[in-house]
Predict the structure.
Amino acid sequence: MIPTRRTLVAALAAAGTLASLTACSGGSSGTSADKPEGTYTFWDPYPQFDNSSPWGKRVTACGKEAGVTVKRTGYDTTDLGNKALLAAQQGNAPDVMLVDNPVVSTLVEAGILNKTSDLGLDTKSIQKNIIGAGTIDGHAYGVPIGANTLALYYNKKVLSAAGVDPASVKDWKSLTAALEKVKAAGKKGITFSAINTEEGSFQFLPWFWGAGGDLKKLNSDKGVAALALWKQWVDAGLAPKSVLQNTQTTSWQEFATGEYAFGENGTWQLGNAEKAGFDYGIINIPAQNGGSAPVPTGGEFATVPVQQDTGRYDVSKKIVTCLTSDKNLLATDTTLMYVAPTASAQAEQVKQNPALKPWVDAVAAARGRTSGGLGSKYPTISQPMWTAVQSALSGSKSPQAAMDTAQSSAEKG
């Protein structure tokens, strides 16, 4: 059933922050029934990959396997969710759509995604914490094509010159002490992304959760402690002021200069790490008082939007299955540099690339951003949170005042 205009308008109003969570799209101008029979539309948040790239070729091959031509459009991650809502309202949603996992719950609330069980898509082999990011009220609404998360890359030469053993970094106190030694030795401490988009929230969450913070209470002492840590680092010159504008890409570029001891980043940078020209290592992000901090699950879900012409679902299912079945996940995730969402594919990935082992372990322990019953409420919490980070690090508000404002905004949202 096509979602009503009222449902979609409500979802669009509630998803004002989706512009920073998701990705864009195009598509045919008519209803799904108007689309050429042999052409299926496919939207994803990978504009960096054109159709001649390994990913573009993979999507094309899956269309051929299903007996159709796939018209793929990749758009910036900031627009896809909103475009999806508008397209459904206009009756021209794409046949298959890849969306960032926090967006799934918002699209489900709008009534525009099919349940995987209704389509006959098999998700039994997917790790529970990974499929959980796209599961609402016990029903999965997409199939994860892979997962990623965050850890700390470190420069072995920089740490060695400063007399820092990476194994000594076990909590916030020991990490800060390491950064101070590195600065005293004439190098730079740590870089990360604190930009005012979902990337900033994604990078802040390990510290927030590592302090014991609860997304339903942003201004608790624990949540404020995490923001105070970041502010301490920036104020002391242990982290650069550029973190306020850094995306995860520009943050990586800073780390890749070889001047920084640590860089918070993800699985997707492994290929770049090999090209960086210096020896590196990877450690888990430490929790405030020791142990590994919970890290957020990243990655996209392959979803099948509701169509007026339900006869198109069979081919859409074949395309999704081609990208996400156990036998094909290895090729898909190697192309995208993701950790596979199934144990069997993960084992094969580690066999081929042992450097993925710490990432597989991290993904296994990762936490969904919409977990804990947040669902579609997450965007209304994430935006105030990244705004608080910006306010505190820029010096316009104290960490406490910034988080108080964030909590007030989240409650109104």
User: Anything to note?
Assistant: DSSP finds 18 helices and eleven strands in the chain. The first strand starts at residue 39 and ends at 44. Residues 1-36 have pLDDT under 50 and may be disordered. The radius of gyration is 21 Å.
